[in-house]
User: Which sequence fits this backbone?
């Protein structure tokens, strides 16, 4: 079992007005969580910036323990027979000591077999984060 260094979760908005499209990147480290948000056009109406998010240290330890037990070699990408038009894209990248990565990229319609072991804990952890007041 390799030691997990950090997790990167990204989300790119789907089919909405260009000035409302955004890219969110959340980096989860053992001691801190950072959100970076940017718009996708020069005339963006997205509140762009970089924020440190408060995270429960016990929840961070639990998340890393859960993710370190995942065998990424057993995860398989499943492409849709007919990809939907539009939709958002998310990704979850596990970065291990030494630089090795395990990346799950969810373009519209894509799934992975066995990915619940990664996405379940990460999404549960993210739901527990509190956004800064200026973002609510």
Assistant:
């Amino acid at each position: 079992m390799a030691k997990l260094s950090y997790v990167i979760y990204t989300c790119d908005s789907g089919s909405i007005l260009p000035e409302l499209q955004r890219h969110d990147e959340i980096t989860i480290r053992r001691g801190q969580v950072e959100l970076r948000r940017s718009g996708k056009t020069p005339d963006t109406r997205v509140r762009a910036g970089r924020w440190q998010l408060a995270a429960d240290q016990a929840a961070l330890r639990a998340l890393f323990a859960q993710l370190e037990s995942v065998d990424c070699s057993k995860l398989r990408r499943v492409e849709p027979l007919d990809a939907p038009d539009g939709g958002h894209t998310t990704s979850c990248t596990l970065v291990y000591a030494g630089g090795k990565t395990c990346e799950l990229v969810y373009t519209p319609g894509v799934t992975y077999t066995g990915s619940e072991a990664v996405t379940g804990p990460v999404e549960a952890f993210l739901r527990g984060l509190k956004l800064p007041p200026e973002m609510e």
User: Anything to note?
Assistant: The mean pLDDT is 92. The beta strands are 4-12, 22-29, 33-39, 49-53, 76-78, 89-96, 101-106, 111-113. The chain is about 20% helix and 35% strand.
